[in-house]
Design brief:
2 domains, disordered N terminus, alpha/beta, D-Maltodextrin-Binding Protein, domain 2, 5-stranded mixed β-sheet
Length: 299
């Protein structure tokens, strides 16, 4: 008798080690899609969108949950990646942080201040430009200090290698509470903050598996929303946050549970990237072919 074994597909997923990605942590730990022949390997990416864009480019990840503006910029510059889904509809609230030992208090007084950024074209880099553009100012290359991740930012600000650091405000809250940082303001994104992107080659061969995975993500989102008290406790414990802070974040959060990819969002992002000089007009496509909406239950 011949015993047939289901072919196993492993999907390598990356995302920031933050509360937004609780559904992915759960899926990685419980592996609910193994019966369908799908194994999910979720690896936290503390370097953020810049780190993940590089990993997609180098075939180290298949799927990533990234900042909308960051991955759009990388795709327009040539990365072979498709955006398949808006992951979080609500904006990201970037906290503007300074070293607790400084006397900086005005979030708009950027002048010659230096910004700590995780990587070039990362969210922390792009949002510093967006913030400056709103103030009618243009940042210069020498005003950026590349620090890799949150630990690098702590060192850069404490050693006076940088003045400002933009990062998601709830993730940095433990460092604000401990007196490592002071938060002097916020810069919200003017668009949905996270999208899911897939390497083109992997997507072409595994679209059904990707759709099944996203259906599972949707189910996790819904379950987390339906059990709010338990969810707040889980997130607080998992990410070392206070429950009242998690409750505030959870009330502001709007996960996206459909497959729509409104082009207007990405036209707005592209316009902002042009305005701040991250991309040039030659990078702007006539059609937004990097958007690849999926459909639910296509199996």
């Amino acid at each position: 008798m011949t015993i047939w074994k289901m072919e196993q597909t492993t999907i390598r997923v990356g995302g920031v080690p933050e509360h937004f990605n609780t559904p992915w942590y759960q899926i990685n730990e419980e592996q609910p899609l193994q019966a369908q022949g799908i194994e999910v390997s979720f690896t936290p990416q503390p370097g953020g969108t810049g780190q993940m864009a590089t990993a997609l480019r180098n075939n180290e990840l298949d799927v990533a949950v990234l900042l909308t503006e960051g991955i759009t910029a990388n795709i327009l510059k040539g990365d072979a990646v498709k955006i398949v889904k808006v992951y979080v509809n609500s904006p990201l609230r970037w906290g503007v942080h300074v070293s607790a030992g400084t006397d900086y208090n005005n979030v708009n007084d950027i002048g010659d201040k230096r910004f700590a950024i995780s990587r070039l074209y990362s969210g922390s880099h792009l949002m510093a430009h967006v913030h400056a553009h709103k103030l009618g100012k243009q940042l210069r290359d020498e005003q950026f200090e590349i620090i890799g991740n949150l630990d690098g930012a702590i060192d850069a600000l404490s050693l006076d290698k940088a003045d400002y650091f933009l990062w998601e405000k709830f993730t940095t809250q433990p460092y604000v509470s401990s007196g490592t940082f002071r938060r002097i303001g916020e810069v919200p994104t003017p668009w949905p903050c996270f999208v899911i992107a897939v390497r083109e080659e992997f997507l072409a061969n595994n679209e059904v598996a990707i759709a099944q995975l996203i259906d599972e993500v949707h189910a996790r989102m819904q379950a987390l929303e339906q059990h709010e008290a338990t969810t707040i406790q889980e997130i607080a414990k998992r990410f070392n946050l206070e429950e009242d802070q998690v409750s505030q974040w959870f009330n502001e959060l709007e996960w996206n549970k459909d497959f729509e990819l409104p082009e207007a969002i990405f036209h707005q992002v592209i316009e902002s990237l042009l305005n701040v000089g991250i991309i040039e007009q030659r990078h702007v496509p006539k059609r937004l072919d990097f958007l690849h909406p999926l459909t639910q239950a296509i199996v």
